[in-house]
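>> received
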Amino acid sequence: MNKSLILVVEDDTSVRNLITTTLKAHEYRYLTAPNGQSAILEASSHNPDIVLLDLGLPDMDGVEIIKKIRTWSNMPIIVISARSEDTDKIDALDAGADDYLTKPFSVEELLARLRVTQRRLSMMQNVSPAETVVFVNGKLRVDYVAGCAYLNEEELHLTPIEYKLLCLLTRNIGKVLPHTFITQSIWGSSWDNDIASLRVFMATLRKKIEKEPNSPQYIQTHIGVGYRMLKVE
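>> returned
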């Protein structure tokens, strides 16, 4: 049986029932919360493995919930929202969300996102000390085992997806990675939502590692193709 505990924060009964029915069918354990206050209470009381969070809740905005949870936990938070503008995605990701799924969504895509998140958690928990590798490129340093990245010796506060993107690029420095290769590696799929999310995540990652995001030093965009990590002297 799948022992992961999922907290579903959704005020729309029909959407909440769809998600919980899907989770039950695939042997996930779950908790539900119809508003922000109960979401924070459930998250702090039960410490779920993953949170599925709607942004448009009746008592508070989902971004505020993300910020509150991030004051005491790094539990993965996947936003599921009807808000599809890049600014909404960036606000949620900057607040500390790990992934962003736009409504309407397919059950298959939701399950794929959950599987990717679980694999990432499992990898972080099972890394062997013998695999210690530190990547250095200019003033950027990535400690793969510690799961940390630094710029100018200051730790970067990256979301799990941003960190995974950075690792993928650094492990393939100098190579142009196509959009589909990146989305398959990060989310295990190449849905239209994945390509849109990739653009947003890359923008938020650049804001954190580039001195001038509009004139990137580390991550080069190949329009219509993909991205490449540049070698910095």
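>> The mean pLDDT is 87.
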